[in-house]
Amino acid sequence: MANFEQLGIRPEWCEILKHQGIAVPTPVQERSIPVLLGGRDIIAEAQTGTGKTLAFLLPIIQKINVSDRSPQALIIAPTRELALQITEEAKKLTANDDKLHVLAVYGGQDVEKQLRKLQNGTQIVIGTPGRLLDHLRRGTLKLDNVKKLVLDEADQMLHMGFLDDVETILRELPHKRQTMLFSATMPKGIRNLAKNYMKDPEDVKVSSKSVIPINQIRQQVLECTDRGKFDALRGMIDTYRPYLAIIFCRTKRRASKLNEDLREAGYESDELHGDLSQSKRENVMKAFRDAKLQILVATDVAARGLDVEGVTHVFNYDIPHDAESYIHRIGRTGRAGGTGLAVTFATQHDRPELARIEEGTNQKLTRIQWTSEGPVASTGAARRSINSQDNDERSGGRSAGTGSARRGAGRSGRSEGGRGGRGSRGGEGGRSSGRSGGRSGDERSAGRGSARSSDSSRGAAGQGGRGGRSAGRSGDERSSGWAGRSADKRNSGGRGPAKSDRRDSRRGR
């Protein structure tokens, strides 16, 4: 197999790839890069997770004229999350070149900030169809000098109804350009698009084997209501007792809020998102790698490329928008030959995203539901009941937030979600007296508390993802470490065992 330099990538870019731990091209990279460096159009049929982002980014970056600050490459992606992920990869490649600028353009972002960056000059623009079209209509994005066009996840753009917007954008581009189309499938609409807007494209089709071993990851969809999410999450954590877990949220605000709720409920957690300073991010990552944290609450972009040994569980608290995001999220577990468990929380309103994920990964995900007895297989009747509850919640105007009952009314309505569950932990039973709908300490002990009582069986229920590591710990060691840690610290009402105790519990590492 050829290396990147043999494919035509310049040595300085190969060095950057080596520093990122990337030495061997994937099949789609090996077949696409020489074609793209030669200037030909390409239609690449490749599944998500096969390394196609680098397949088009490397040839583009190598061909950019840094002395010209106008947009020279346009990359169109169906979702904000995917646009941000591509942008993050491009910025990692160009971090040492202060003359090469990359900009993400998507909805929900400060338009004025985008305008300033466009005015200052950027050679690579990565965006979603709607916001790109908005800038074109405003006259704030000039595409006269674009020489490279990428349509990534083209089939998703078709399914999401963006094809008309995409064609409008294509008509604004110079006729003389190189077009790259990447798609997991090739439906008729995409074939017609290629026929109308591409010149003698090279067809590249690679096997669907992903560079992320999702076949080693047990995947489940937990069907729930918005308001039931937080209780279900706590129940899953207490049941499976992960050694290390990453919980994904859609926004920085939701990640911060969920982390706050988890910490108040007694879990060792911290947050990772774009608002953190570099030093704070590094401190959080060090604590997580050293297993001083059990749970990391993160956004997609912050966790992109995150590689931590020992992550046994991934929880998609907010469902990802597309298969690309899904694969990169769950790929944080099941590393180095280990196994892992990925649980995606889904309400009835998440069905379109769930359908895209299942289509993009070519699999049907197992449905489960959370009960007081633990996770059980989902049934049609139970699903209808959940949907009915979800509709009642929404029609009643209650906001789900991240807990089962939110803090909106001065915390008085919080009966089960966060501190409300602490009445039986650490002698704080008096806290429940002023909370409407609160359960007594005995009721709580009989409910979710029962799921915590069988520590020995719970330790075995976790995904022993570290089993393949030479320095891995046994199930008993894990049970005496994090398995005991979560329960002990909540029972004591404190922040977990002393640091010396945690160090003792980790000496087997």
From TrEMBL:
DEAD-box RNA helicase Q domain mapped to chain residues: 2-30
Gene Ontology terms, MF aspect: ATP binding; ATP hydrolysis activity; RNA helicase activity; RNA strand annealing activity
Domain Helicase ATP-binding as annotated: residue spans: 33-204
Enzyme category, top tier: hydrolase
Motif (Q motif): 2-30
Domain of life the protein comes from: Bacteria
Pfam families per the UniProt record, alphabetical: DEAD (PF00270), Helicase_C (PF00271)
SUPFAM superfamilies recorded: P-loop containing nucleoside triphosphate hydrolases (SSF52540)
Low complexity bias locations: 447-460
Spans annotated as Disordered: 368-509
Alphabetical GO biological process terms: response to cold
EC number(s) per entry: 3.6.4.13
Any one GO cellular component localisation term in the record: ribosome
Keyword field: ATP-binding, Cytoplasm, Helicase, Hydrolase, Nucleotide-binding
Annotated Helicase C-terminal domain residues: 216-376
Catalytic activity: ATP + H2O = ADP + phosphate + H(+)
Composition skew (Gly residues), residue ranges: 420-439, 461-470
The family this protein is said to belong to: Belongs to the DEAD box helicase family.
The protein's name in its UniProt record: ATP-dependent RNA helicase CshA
Lineage of the species this protein comes from: Bacteria, Bacillati, Bacillota, Bacilli, Bacillales
